[in-house]
């Protein structure tokens, strides 16, 4: 079994659906951090079978809307001095602003410098719609 050290101060994003860890890493822009980030893919989980985990040393806050968009079943654990001080559960956001881009080439967002805004149109199927052109976001997860 692979052993990854625990962190003293930072965040552990746990229970990420297996295979979505890299998407979380990309949309949270964790590559821009100058701290230690560990991505564990396909870890064994008694509850889900497999899961992804991301450990971020030194970071104490993340965008829960981004995480909720990708995987609203994930858990965010805030660690201080080696102790769990807070556990957060992201929720599916009602609105996404500048998280993903509209793929419609005729959308105003492809020619104008405006915010990319999507609103939740189907919470059960996790579907979002562009605020400007009504295009349904196909890659919601």
UniProtKB/TrEMBL annotation:
<dbReference type="InterPro" id="IPR036792">
    <property type="entry name" value="Asp_carbatrfase_reg_C_sf"/>
</dbReference>
<keyword id="KW-0862">Zinc</keyword>
<dbReference type="GO" id="GO:0006207">
    <property type="term" value="P:'de novo' pyrimidine nucleobase biosynthetic process"/>
</dbReference>
<dbReference type="InterPro" id="IPR020542">
    <property type="entry name" value="Asp_carbamoyltrfase_reg_C"/>
</dbReference>
<feature type="domain" description="Aspartate carbamoyltransferase regulatory subunit N-terminal">
    <location>
        <begin position="2"/>
        <end position="90"/>
    </location>
</feature>
<dbReference type="Pfam" id="PF02748">
    <property type="entry name" value="PyrI_C"/>
</dbReference>
<dbReference type="InterPro" id="IPR036793">
    <property type="entry name" value="Asp_carbatrfase_reg_N_sf"/>
</dbReference>
<dbReference type="GO" id="GO:0009347">
    <property type="term" value="C:aspartate carbamoyltransferase complex"/>
</dbReference>
<dbReference type="Pfam" id="PF01948">
    <property type="entry name" value="PyrI"/>
</dbReference>
<dbReference type="GO" id="GO:0006221">
    <property type="term" value="P:pyrimidine nucleotide biosynthetic process"/>
</dbReference>
<keyword id="KW-0479">Metal-binding</keyword>
<dbReference type="InterPro" id="IPR020545">
    <property type="entry name" value="Asp_carbamoyltransf_reg_N"/>
</dbReference>
<dbReference type="InterPro" id="IPR002801">
    <property type="entry name" value="Asp_carbamoylTrfase_reg"/>
</dbReference>
<keyword id="KW-0665">Pyrimidine biosynthesis</keyword>
<protein>
    <submittedName>
        <fullName>Aspartate carbamoyltransferase regulatory subunit</fullName>
    </submittedName>
</protein>
<dbReference type="GO" id="GO:0046872">
    <property type="term" value="F:metal ion binding"/>
</dbReference>
<feature type="domain" description="Aspartate carbamoyltransferase regulatory subunit C-terminal">
    <location>
        <begin position="96"/>
        <end position="139"/>
    </location>
</feature>
């Amino acid at each position: 079994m692979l052993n990854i050290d625990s962190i003293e101060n930072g965040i552990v994003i746990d229970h990420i659906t297996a295979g979505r860890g890299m998407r979380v890493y990309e949309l949270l822009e964790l590559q821009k951090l100058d701290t230690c980030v560990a991505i564990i893919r396909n870890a064994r989980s008694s509850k889900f079978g497999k899961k992804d985990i991301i450990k971020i040393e030194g970071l104490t806050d993340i965008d829960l809307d981004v995480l909720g968009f990708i995987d609203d079943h994930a858990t965010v654990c805030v660690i201080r001095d080696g102790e769990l001080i807070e556990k957060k559960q992201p929720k599916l956001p009602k609105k996404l602003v500048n998280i993903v881009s509209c793929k419609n080439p005729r959308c105003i967002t492809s020619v104008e410098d405006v915010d990319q805004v999507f609103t939740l149109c189907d919470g059960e199927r996790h579907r979002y719609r562009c605020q400007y052109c009504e295009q349904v976001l196909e890659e919601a997860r």
